[in-house]
Fold this protein.
Amino acid sequence: MADIADVTEWLLDSDPALRWQVERDLLGEPESVWQATRARVATEGMGARLLALQDEDGQWAGGAFFPADFDFEGPEAAPGAGQPWTATTWTLNSLREWGLDASALAGTAEKLAENSRWEYDDLPYWGGEVDCCINAFTLANGTWLGADVSSLPQWFVDHQMDEGGWNCEWVEGSTRASVYSTLSSIDGILWYEKATGGTPELTAARRKAQEYLLERRILYKVTTGEPVRPGVELLAYPQRSKYNVLHAVNYFRDASLYDGVPPDPRLADAVDVIRRQRQADGTWLQGYRYPGRVWFEQDVPVGEPSKWVTFLALRALDWWDSAAPGVES
C-alpha cells in the first residue's frame, strides 16, 4: 500500500473544484487556505469552463432539464442512451457541488425565473414540477442562488410515501419508493437544511427516508437480499443523481456530521465494499461512466485511477474509521 502522503499529493495536483475539498476534508487545512483555493473555481478549470458556456438568458444548452435541441423521439432518447448532462439543472448541480460561490452567478436566479420553463407542462423553473429528483435539485440550487423555492420543502413532506422514500414515477402510478429517487431527494433536502436550518417537518421526513435506506443497509432488497440495483457496488464520478454505494455512504457522512450523530452500524457492509476496492497504490479506479451528452469529461475513463473517486472513498473511510466504534481501519 502506498503511503497516504503520496496519494494526497496526487490528489492536490488537481482542479480547484477538487483540491479545496482535499485541503478541507482530508488535510484539515485552515479555512483561509481552502477558501483561497475554492475561490479559484470561478476563474480556473472546470468551473470557469462551465461558467463560460452559460447562455445570455441564464440557461445552459437552452433548456431546464434537457438541451433545447433534444429530440424526445430520436436516438438520444433510446433506452440506454443516457440522460444529456448539459442543460441548466445538471450544470448548476455541478457548479454548486464544486463549491462555486453564488456571487459568480449573480443575476442567474432572476434570469431563470423569467426565461426557463420545465419541459413538463411548461412550469416555471423555481417552482419545480412533479419529479422528486428535479425538485430536490431545484430546492438546493435555488437556495444556493437565493431564488424563491419556498413551495418545495412542503412538497417533499406532502409527497413522501408510507415506507419512507419517494419515487420520481409516482405521477405515473408508482406506489413504492425508490432508492434512486430517495437518495436524490434527501441530497437536496440536506443541502437546504444546512443552508437554512429547514423545518421540523422536513427534517423528520429526511430522517424517515434515511431509515428507509438503512433498512436495506443501502445495498440489499428487503424482500430477497439481492443487490438493490444493478451496479450498486460500482464507484464512479461524476455521481450525477445515480445510486451507488459511494454516493450513498458520502450522503450519510454528511448527514451524520450535520445531525451530530455517530455512523449507523448498518452502513458497515457498504463501507466494506468501498474499502475492498482500494488498489495496492492507495487509489480507487473509475468504475463506470454514465452515458449521455456532456460539455466535457470531468474525470478519467473507466478502469483508470480516479482522483475524484479516491477522494470520496478516503473521505468516507476517514469519517467511518474515526467515528464508528469497533471498526478496524
